[in-house]
Design goal:
Length: 191
Amino acid sequence: MTDEQGAKGTVSYLMEMGALKRGKRSGWWIVGVKDPETIAEHSFRTAVIGAVLAMMEGADPAKVALLCTFHDTQETRVGDIPWIGRRYLRAASNEEVTADQVADAHPAVAEGIRAVVHEYENGESLEVLVAHDADKLECVIQGLEYLEQGYPNAREWVDSTRAKLKTPSAQALAEAAEGMSITEWQRTYLR
């Protein structure tokens, strides 16, 4: 592979990642949300939550944020299959999709991204545990926001997802988020 081919393949991957800004999180449609968040919006806040949880749990914040950043990148090709849909569909593994996505990228980029996705999918480190909790906690917080916006069916998703949190920090943050307004953060500055 020439440097030019690797650069073009890498840019192609980066452009594909732009599709995440347009792809909607389809699970929220099931509870009636008319215009749900995009996959990119979810991934961004998941990475921020992951770094914060890592700080609280004594894990590596940069590593957790990296794992979270790439945790749903495969959805450019397979879409966001909600949990109920997974009962009926068999999609390629995230690792298989990632391998195809980066096949033409610069070798170091392809190897690095494949390693991150492999670790997220198969690892057992504290960082992987925290990254998985960050994904769930983001869903809990988003669900609470949808509840406040008038989507009462989001409650079951919030409760079932919250029950899957494993780290004490994620559980504490989920508890703190309950009943908190989506504009709570600005109240201290309005006083």
